[in-house]
Amino acid sequence: MTDTHSVADPFAQGVQQLDRRAVLRSAEIVARIRDDQWDVPTPCGAWTLRRLLAHMTAQHLGFAAAADGGPVDEAVWRETPLEDPRRAYADSVSRVLDAFAADGVLDRAFVLPWIHPTMRFAAPRAIGFHLVDYVVHGWDVAASLGVPAAYDDDLVAAAAEVAAEEVPVGPSRERPGAAFGPPVEPAGPASAEDRLLASLGRDPRWSPK
Fold it and tell me: What is the pLDDT of residues 28-84, one digit of tens each?
């Protein structure tokens, strides 16, 4: 089964650069983690920072393999303990950005087994999924560290556009370990970032303390 849907132009043509900027910003945030902070809590349920980084790293490697085209070994997506999470994440960032920048990548179809075991997703759509992940997970890391995520407004707007169209509300958000939870109502005046986070089950005012 091949997905023929893709994010409408001009977004589709700019999604690689939007995603690249989001991923590089996430790498800047991750680089601020101190060695004594790996076990601090995150907004992602019971996940510690170490566990969140394992997830983020595995997702980069999985998306990179999908971008290369052809069959993808599901083991590529498997989260494994990381001896040096900061270095592993930096390496995975380089891997996925190189894969997404390859000639002809927007003409490929991605296999994303965590969404569907056989469906092939149009590249702009798949990269849009990735963009949402790294704006939101970058915020997760920043919130755990008590620092601003500071994503540019256009990245937040792009992630919100994709999330509204592509991240359905339903039972999949309620299962243990789901990356995105049921929507919540932000408290008080809400920024665009607050509305995005709340739509994906985050409390924008979450703090580890």
Answer: 999 999 999 999 999 988 899 999 999 999 999 999 999 998 667 888 899 999 999
Q: How far is CA 89 from CA 18, 105, 140, 187, in A?
A: 19, 22, 15, 33
- Whole-number percent of the chain with pLDDT over 70: 87
Taking CA atoms, 170 is separated from 116, 163, 178, 183, 195, in Å, by 16, 14, 11, 10, 18
What are the distances in angstroms from CA 139 to CA 31, 69, 119? 14, 30, 29
Q: What domains are defined for the chain?
A: 11-151 (1.20.120.450)
